[in-house]
Design a protein that fits this description.
about 100 residues; two-stranded antiparallel sheet; four-stranded antiparallel β-sheet
Length: about 100
C-alpha cells in the first residue's frame, strides 16, 4: 500500500487558546484537526486540569509542509510569548491524501 508524505504539526497549549487555534488552522489551510485534553508539566509548572484555567490541549494537524510552517510561525509569534505553548512536527505518511 502506498502512503503519501505529509507533515504532522502538534501544538500543546493552554485550553484558553482552543477556539483561536481552530480558527487559525482553518485560515492557514488545514483541512482538519484533532484536539484532546492533556496533562503535564514543564518550565511554567504543572498542568493537572484540576480547574478550568489549568487545562491544556493537544492539537494535531496533518497537512502540507507549507501549511504547518505558516501555522507554527503564527502560533510562535502570537501566542507563545503569552501562553504555555509547545510545538513540534514529524513526517507522516497518509493513505488518503485527498483528506489532507
Amino acid at each position: 500500500m502506498q502512503s503519501h508524505p505529509k507533515k504532522l504539526l502538534v501544538i500543546i497549549a493552554e485550553a484558553a487558546l482552543e477556539k483561536a487555534l481552530i480558527r487559525d488552522a482553518r485560515a492557514f489551510g488545514a483541512h482538519g484537526y484533532t484536539i484532546t485534553e492533556v496533562r503535564g508539566g514543564g518550565e511554567r509548572g504543572d498542568r493537572e486540569a484540576a480547574w478550568e484555567a489549568d487545562r491544556s490541549i493537544e492539537m494535531k494537524v496533518i497537512c502540507a509542509e507549507a501549511v504547518a510552517e505558516r501555522l507554527a510561525s503564527h502560533v510562535l509569534a502570537n501566542y507563545a510569548p503569552h501562553y504555555a505553548v509547545t510545538l513540534f512536527t514529524a513526517e507522516v505518511g497518509v493513505f488518503r491524501p485527498q483528506k489532507f
